[in-house]
Amino acid sequence: MGRKLVIDPVTRIEGHGKVVINLDEENQVADAKLHVVEFRGFEKFVQGHPFWEAPMLLQRICGICFVSHHLAGAKTLDDMIGVGYSTGAMITPTAEKVRRLGHYAQQLQSHVTAYFYLVVPEMMLGMDAPPEKRNILGLIEEDPALVKRVVALRKWGQELIAVLLGKRMHGINSVPGGVNDNLSAADRDRFLNGDSGLLSMAEVMEYAQDGLKVFRDFHEQHREEVDSFADVDALNMCLVDDEGNADYYHGRLRVTDSDGETVRDFDYHDYLAHFAEATEEWSYMKFPYIRELGREQGSLRVGPLARVNNTQSYATPMAQEALAEFKAYSDGKPNNRVLHTMWARAIEIIHTAELIEQLLNDPELQEDSLIVVPDEGAWTGEGIGVVEAPRGTLLHHYRADEAGRITFANLIVATTQNNQVLNRTVRAVSERYLAGKTEITEGMMNAIEVGIRAYDPCLSCATHALGQMPLKVSIVDAAGRTIDERVR
Amino acid sequence: MIKLVIDGKPVEVEEGTNLVEAAGENGVYIPTLCYLKGEPCIGTCRVCSVRVNGNVTAACSVTVSNDMEVDVNEPEVTDMRRALVEALFAEGNHNCPSCEKSGRCELQAVGYETGMMVSRFPYRYPPRDRDVGAKHLWLERDRCIFCQRCVEHIRDRTSGHKIFSINGRGSRARIEIDVELADQMPPEQVREAMDICPVGCILEKRVGFDVPMGQRKFEVQTHRERATEGKSNE
C-alpha cells in the first residue's frame, strides 16, 4: 500500500500553498505537486476603473514587490497614452532613472528579505533544525551581528522607496508618461552619506556582500548537498539589454536553453504570439510555456538564477567579479542547480547596490524634465509593460475603451512563470529525500520547502488568490488514502 | 462683537460669523464636508453637528449670536459626528488605496479626524454605474457622498445654469452631469470641479497622481490644522 504526504502550509514563502506527494507500494514517488489553493481576481475587478488608477489598484496585489507591479503598470499606461516603447516616444531620461532607482531599491530590500529572513536560517542552522529554531528568531540567537546588518540594509532600501514613492509601501511616483517628482539633492545626500539611523552608501556596499559570504561559507561546508540537492532543467528567461545581459527595468525578452543558446528573442509586446498557458484542476496557478515548444520543453525559469544564467557580464565591478566566479563553477554553462538560486540572489544583491550607487551619483536625477504629455490623438488604448521583478519577469497587459475604462487586464507574474519548474523541483527533491524511505522525518519534509523557497515564490501574486495559504504536505497511498499529513 | 461660549470657554467673534469659523478661530475644530468658507450653507452632510443651547444642529447652518452656548467636544455629539462619517463610508463604495484623491480627500481626512476605525453600519455595496460621457470629466459614482457642492457651486459661466444635479431619491439617488454644459467648461473650471469634490467622484479624465504622495493636501496639513488656522478654503 502506498502513502500520501501532505505539507500544508508551505512556510516562509509569500502566499499560501500545499504540497501533496504520492508514494507507491515500494515507497517510490508516483506523483508530486505544488497546489496553489487561493484565488484573488484582480484582473476582473479592475475592469471599469479609470485606466490611470489601474497601477495603483493592481500594485495592492503584493506587499513585497509592489514597486515592480507599479512600474509594469506605469509602462503599460505609457503605451496606452502613446508614450513609451511601443511608439518610440520615450519618457525623459530623468523619469526613467527615477523609476529605475525605485525599482532597484525594492529589489535590494526584497532580495535581502527573501535571502536572509526566509532562506539563510536553513543555511546557518541546518535543514534538520527544529522548526521553532530555523527562522529569523533562531538566526538572531545564532548571529545577532549579522541580523543587525541585515535589518539596517533592508531598512535603507525601504527608506529609499519611501523617499521616491512617498510611502514605504504602495506609494506612487510613476504617472502616464513619466514620474511626478525627482530626487532632491538633500535626499540624495542622505542616502550617499548616511543619516541618523540610516546607512551610508559605503556601508550599504559593504553590507551587500554579506549574502555572498554566507553562501560561500555554506557552500564550502556542504558542497555535495548544495550541488546535488536538485538539478532542474528548464529554459531561462529574462529581459536583456542591447548587449544581451539582464536588465531589471527594460529590454527584449530572451529565452535560452540548457546549452545557453538563444531559442527566443522578442519584443515583449508580442508575448501573446509566443506564450500559451495550461491549467490544472488542482491549482489556481496557471502554467505558462512557449507555445511552439509545448508544455514540457517550453516551460521557463525566471528570477535570479535565470537572469544570472543569461548574463555574460555586468557593467559593475563587484558583481562582475562574483559573476565570473559563478560562471566558472559551471564551466560557463547555464546552471540548473536549485540551491544555486541563492548564489545568484546574493550576486544580484551586490549588483543592485552598485546600480543604486551609480544612479545616486547621477545628476540627471535632480533635473526637472519629468513627464511627456502626448497629443490626445496618440491614445492607443492598449499597453503592455514588463519589468524584471525580484522574483523574475513580470508582465502587465491592459486594454481600455475610448473613455478610459479598463476593459481587460492580464498579469503574468514571475511565480506563475516558474510554476512548472517549481513542480519539477518538488518532484526532484521528493525523489532525493523521500523515495524508498519508510519513515518520513520532519527534516525530509522541510527539504521540499527549502526547494520551493529557493524561488522565493509569491503565491499571492501568482494565483491572484484570496484567503489563507499555509503549507500542507500529504502522503497518499496507492489506493488514494492519506497516510501521513503535516500541516502548518 | 458677539459673546458666546464654546466648550465652556467664553469667546468673542465678529457679528455675522458662521459658527464653524467662530470655533476654528478659537482653536476648536468642527469637522465639515459640504461646507465651504464664505459660501452659502448647503447643510447636506451634517458632519458638523454640534449642540447649540442644548439642541443638536449643523454648525455650518448657524450664525453666532450673543449668549449662545455651544458644545463641540461633548461625548454624545462627538460620537454622532463619527457615526455620520461611518454612514457615508458604508453607503458608498470607497476604496482609498487606489483612489486618485487619497491624501487630498476630505472624507478620508475627516474619517481620520473623527477617529473612525471601521463603520458600525453594514456596508451596502450599492451597484453604481460610472458616467464617462463628458469629454473631460469622469463621474466615479461609487464615491459620491451627495454633498451637493458641485451642484451648487459649479455652474455654466455664461448662463449660470447648474452643470451637476442629483437625480432620484433615497437609495436610488445619483449624481448626474449635463454633458453639453460640461463639455464647454474651460480647463480651469474642470480642475475646480475636481477640487471642489470632497471625495474622488469628480475626476479630470486622464489626470491622476500628479501630486506626489507625502505632498498631498492633507498630508502636508491636516483637516483640523486647516480649519483652526483659517485655511479651510486653501
Percent in strands of chain B: 5-15%
Biggest sheet of chain B: strands, sense, closure? 5 strands, mixed
Mean pLDDT of chain B: 95
Q: Which CATH architecture of the largest domain in chain B?
A: 2-Layer Sandwich
Strand composition percent of chain A: 15-25%
| Gyration radius of chain A, rounded | 22 Å
SS summary, helix count of chain A: 19
Low-confidence runs of chain B: none
CATH topology title of the largest domain in chain B: Alpha-Beta Plaits
**Total individual domains of chain A:** 4
Shape of chain B: globular
CATH class (first level) name of the largest domain in chain B: Alpha Beta
Rg estimate of chain B, integer Å: 18 Å
* Uncertain segments of chain A: 463-470
Mind summarizing the main beta sheet of chain A? 5 strands, mixed
Give me the oligomer status.
heterodimer
Based on helices, strands and strand pairing, what is the structural class of chain A? alpha+beta
Total strand count of chain B, please? 9
What does it look like?
The complex is a heterodimer of chains A (488) and B (234). Chain A has 488 residues and is an alpha+beta fold. Helices cover 42% and strands 19% of the residues of chain A. Chain A folds into four domains: 93 residues, no CATH class; 82 residues, no CATH class; 170 residues; 101 residues, no CATH class. In chain A, strands 1, 2, 3, 17 and 18 form a five-stranded mixed sheet that branches. In chain A, a hairpin with a 7-residue loop joins strand 1 and strand 2. In chain A, helix 17 packs antiparallel against helix 18. The longest helix of chain A is centred in the N-terminal third of the chain and has 33 residues. The two termini of chain A are 26 Å apart. Chain B has 234 residues and is an alpha+beta fold. Chain B folds into two domains: 72 residues, Ubiquitin-like (UB roll); 124 residues, Alpha-Beta Plaits. In chain B, strands 2-1-5-3-4 form a five-stranded mixed sheet, sandwiched between helices. In chain B, strand 7 and strand 8 form a beta hairpin. The longest helix of chain B has 17 residues. The radius of gyration of chain B is 18 Å and the shape is globular. Chains A and B meet through loops of A and loops of B.
